[in-house]
């Protein structure tokens, strides 16, 4: 299965991907676009600008479109994440979602599943004083609507996971094993 992990920052996506990469050794792992772009020398604004999120969105689309990754892949983030960030951004009105939707839909068709990791109550991850909690909550709300309500007919199956990293991994493994041919 080609599986993407979605959620706002500091909810445990990467931890879950790392846990699953150990449990599913035949799977390839694709790191999140932010880290790749940063390693390549891309300089992000602080906080990231609309252009920064669009660069990550484009990279995420490229990841999903890359057929060389094979049929068993764990993607840390997917295009929907960046749409959520862009819609929650203070300059959201400068983001033209309609111009991106055809590419996003096409890329998402290569996925079998999106695993959504939302903010839990109580929150499992402590934030530093410098982190914008309101923005994080706004992104979480946007992603919840985009993935669970599917207002843009993205048409991808979504698995919501909760609990400890081990419990989340178990939920994903159960889903994967129930969908084997």
Automatic annotation (TrEMBL):
Residues 2-167 form the NadR/Ttd14 AAA domain. It comes from the Bacteria. This is NadR/Ttd14 AAA domain-containing protein. It comes from Myxococcus stipitatus (strain DSM 14675 / JCM 12634 / Mx s8).
């Amino acid at each position: 299965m080609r599986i993407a992990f979605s959620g706002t920052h500091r909810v445990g996506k990467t931890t879950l991907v790392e846990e699953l990469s150990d449990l599913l050794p035949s799977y390839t792992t694709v790191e999140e676009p932010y880290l790749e772009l940063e390693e390549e020398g891309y300089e992000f604004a602080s906080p990231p600008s609309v252009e920064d999120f669009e660069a990550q969105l484009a990279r995420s689309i490229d990841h999903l479109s890359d057929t060389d990754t094979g049929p068993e892949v764990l993607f840390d983030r997917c295009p929907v994440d960046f749409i959520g960030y862009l819609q929650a951004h203070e300059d959201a009105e400068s983001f033209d979602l309609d111009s991106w939707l055809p590419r996003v839909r096409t890329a998402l068709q290569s996925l079998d599943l999106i695993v959504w990791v939302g903010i839990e109550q109580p929150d499992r991850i402590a934030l530093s004083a410098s982190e914008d909690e309101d923005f994080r909550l706004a992104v979480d709300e946007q992603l919840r609507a985009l993935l669970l309500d599917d207002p843009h007919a993205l048409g991808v199956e979504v698995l919501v996971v909760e609990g400890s990293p081990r419990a989340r991994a178990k939920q994903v493994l159960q889903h994967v094993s129930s969908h084997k041919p």
